[in-house]
Write a structure and sequence with these properties.
Bound molecules: zinc ion
Strand content: 5-15%
Radius of gyration: 18 Å
Number of helices: 6
Distance between the termini: 24 Å
Number of strands: 6
Order of helices and strands: HHEHHEEEEEHH
Largest sheet: 3 strands, antiparallel
Strand order of the largest sheet: 1-3-2
Structural class: alpha+beta
Shape: globular
Amino acid sequence: MVSNLVSPDAAVVPELRAAGLRVTMARQAVLGWLAKHPHATADTIARGVRAEYGSLSLQAIYGVLAACTDAGLLRRIEPAGHPARYERRVGDNHHHVVCRTCGRTEDVDCVVGPRPCLEPASDHGFALDEAEVVFWGLCPSCLRADGTGAGTHYQQEEWQ
Ligand SMILES: [Zn+2]
Ligand SMILES: [Zn+2]
C-alpha cells in the first residue's frame, strides 16, 4: 500500500508514540501534511500527501485518518451535506464556519468563557462538557462568484 514515501514528518513521532500508535511512514506523512493544511477532506489529503511524500493509496489514507482520529490525534468535522474534514487542532472545543457552496472551513474560537461556551435554555439534567457549533454562510470567493463562476468551479474540483 505504501511505496516511495520520502522524508516523512519526524516531528509527529513523539505524538504517535504518546498516543500508543505504531510509527509508520503513512501516519507521519498524513499528520505532517495536515499540520500545514487544516480542515482537509480525505481526497484532498490523498492528493497533497502524494504530491509531497509519494505514492499512498486512498485506502491507506482512510486507515490513517480513522486510527489517528480514534487516538485523539485528529479531529473529524462532519458538516451536514459535505464530506468529512480533518484537522490537527484537537481538544479545545473550537467551532467552525463552513461555506455552503464550496465547503471551505475555517476555525472559530469560543466567543466567551470556558467550554461548553454556550448556555442552553435547558440542559435536561445532562452534565454538559462540549458544544459543537457550525456557522453556515458563503465564503468571500463564493460571495464574489455569486453562485455562478469560481465558487461552482471550485466545488466541482473539490468534491468531483
Ligand atoms: Zn465558498
Ligand atoms: Zn478547526
